[in-house]
Amino acid sequence: MIEPDSTVTTLSIGKPEKNNSSVKKVKKTDDTVPWGIHAIGADLIKNYGKSIKVGVLDTGISAHPDLNIKGGVSFVPSSATYSDDNGHGTHVAGTIAALDNKQGVVGAAPKADLYAIKVLDSNGNGTYSQVIQGIEWAIDNNIEIINMSFGGPEQSETLHEAIAQATSHGILVIAAAGNTGYGEETELFPARYNEVVSVGAVTKSFRRSSYSSTGAELDIVAPGTDILSTAYDQGYATLSGTSMAAPHVTGAAAALWSKNKKWTAEQIKAKLFETATPEGDVKEYGHGMLNLARALGEIDGPIPPIEEVSDFDVNQWDRRVLSYDQDLSALLQSAQTMGYKDLASRIDETLNQLRARNLALHALPSDFSESYSKEESVQQAYDVNEYFRLSSESFNALESEYQNALQQYANILEHPTTETAGLAISSEGVIGQGTIATKNQVVSFPETLDNSYNRSIAVNIPYLTSVNSITSNNGTATYTISGTTVTVTAGGRQPN
């Protein structure tokens, strides 16, 4: 059977960002440690990766003062050299092995030997046949680790056979899982093949990035959001995607292998899996968060997240608050049916205020809708999710107000009440926690009284000497006195 020559594409989201705060912090006289390198513990070791040959199947790698490219090849018909005309491959290479050279950034395995195997064009696209050629070149040139930060939806027996051939030659094959988000099995090929280490992406809180693919073949996760690395114009940039997560694992594998030269690829893979930090469901996190420092024996436990974990989920919040809103609407209907006009008016006013605030919280800045093309819908979804996460305190405060309003009005409807009743004190004294009561001052009861059911309430007033009168604005009220305790019984007609 002749298979169609299906296509693959890079698994980064959006375009490289070269003018943000992370890029501006890059130093010319010292190495900057990207957050992803710190998160896997690679900054706790120095200059690992020596003599490990890493093949970067990608858009090529451009010359850069922070990269040491040992060689390469191009299988893209329109490109005679392995130089990067897209930027993706150079960014991936920096995460793997940016030099520890007192400038720019540093990678996970600075001493590793980089080989640029160009299989993707200037648009980040390539064919399965080009990928297969790249794998075959890696086999012929004794490459030890292959990084593939791209994917496609189509299964290919020919591609699978090439990967199996590579692993049979002792090559460790690592690939990005995909950016198709949560689902039963959303990983792309080649990451989906059993022989391949499939890498998902996490944020600075070590939570699965919203775009990161999930499924039974997912093996491990690594930093993938806002990753700082080398750019193809000899500068630096940040990018997001599982494309950026995979090279963290590739660099970690090179570092580990350089210190355990006699190990096989399977042993390296097993050690990385064994020392990963479990983070949740295996279909979302695989064995867990990559922990190179633990794999190398530098530490004996997990590495703390860069940012505090937030469990805020705007979709779950919306479902809860919708339920509260519906319950308040039902209370409004009950108040109207029972003839409580004033109460119904208050519930209606509260509902309108809460809904207005809810609408304002969900309003997005104009650039969320104007700055994205149709092809960047995944990036837009990710940015929207992060925007709401950063506003979680405001969302949670509004939810509390919904809950308080619901409790308050449900209680009033259950026990219709008068809201104005008081004691007239006939002599000076002290009330409660040091409050001074002057002569003839009216002191409000600490809770409302039920006129319709002749409900009694006992109010204790320290230092009480006498009671001048008790009044109610809705019906009648009687009282008895025992020491400093006044027991009031309210009764009469139904409240308005």
From TrEMBL:
For bias type Polar residues, the affected ranges are 1-12
CDD domains listed in its UniProt record: Peptidases_S8_Subtilisin_subset (cd07477)
Per UniProt, what is one GO molecular function of this protein?
Answer: serine-type endopeptidase activity
Q: PROSITE patterns attached here?
A: SUBTILASE, SUBTILASE_ASP, SUBTILASE_HIS, SUBTILASE_SER
Fetch the InterPro entries from UniProt.
Peptidase_S8/S53_dom, Peptidase_S8/S53_dom_sf, Peptidase_S8_Asp-AS, Peptidase_S8_His-AS, Peptidase_S8_Ser-AS, Peptidase_S8_subtilisin-like, Peptidase_S8_subtilisin-rel, Subtilisin_Carlsberg-like
Region span, Disordered = 1-26
Domain of life according to the entry: Bacteria
Protein's UniProt keywords contain Aminoacyl-tRNA synthetase? no
What Pfam families is this protein classified in? Peptidase_S8
Q: Which residues form the active site?
A: D58 (charge relay system), H88 (charge relay system), S243 (charge relay system)
Look up the record and give one Gene Ontology term from the biological process aspect: proteolysis
Q: Which PANTHER family does this chain map to?
A: CEREVISIN-RELATED (PTHR43806:SF11), PEPTIDASE S8 (PTHR43806)
Q: Which family does it belong to?
A: Belongs to the peptidase S8 family.
The protein's name is S8 family peptidase
Which organism was this protein described from?
Answer: Cohnella ginsengisoli
Organismal lineage: Bacteria, Bacillati, Bacillota, Bacilli, Bacillales
